[in-house]
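Thread amino acids onto this structure.
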């Protein structure tokens, strides 16, 4: 993935580790080795067997030039890349089935900023559920309360749902389908 200035071995391995930590500890901010973090996440998750929906042409071109792009419509994508709130009809995103909940999509959001101090951000988010001792909060700029509520609505039929990664600069936060989120 040199086209995105991402080392296909070292950076992808470090990003994978950050994704594992972010998913295992929902609501914690993890670091990626390169910026923007959403591109590092996509370079880590997407290969020729993973359907991707993105409107980011440089990302699509870079993945295509590496033979790793399988373009998909929003409803058929395994990974949905969103650059900003309201850019994708979330109701169209696959949530999997009761028989195969793992068919639910992963949504990678590019946001403006992620902060441990929720009071310093436009939107404070509280996370509770598996992997969270009690409750954990963080702040996000570039995501609206309505968008967060829409994402929460995609997981009401657990185990069906979507997994979400918020990405800004060199930071990511994982919100697996098993957690509950609340605007603070």
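Threaded sequence (184 positions):
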């Amino acid at each position: 993935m040199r086209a995105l200035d991402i080392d296909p071995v070292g950076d992808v391995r470090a990003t994978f580790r950050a994704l594992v930590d972010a998913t295992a500890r929902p609501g914690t901010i993890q670091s990626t080795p390169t910026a923007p973090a959403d591109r590092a996440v996509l370079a880590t998750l997407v290969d020729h067997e993973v359907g991707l929906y993105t409107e980011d042409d440089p990302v699509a071109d870079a993945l295509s030039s590496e033979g790793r792009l399988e373009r998909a419509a929003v409803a058929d994508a395994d990974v949905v890349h969103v650059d900003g709130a309201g850019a994708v009809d979330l109701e169209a995103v696959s949530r999997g089935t009761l028989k195969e909940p793992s068919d639910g999509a992963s949504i990678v959001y590019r946001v403006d900023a992620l902060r441990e101090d929720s009071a310093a951000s436009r939107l404070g988010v509280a996370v509770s559920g598996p992997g969270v001792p009690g409750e954990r909060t963080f702040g996000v700029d570039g995501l609206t309360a309505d968008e967060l509520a829409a994402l929460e609505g995609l997981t009401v039929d657990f185990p069906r749902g979507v997994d979400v990664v918020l990405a800004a600069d060199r930071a990511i936060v994982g919100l697996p389908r098993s957690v509950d989120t609340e605007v603070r």
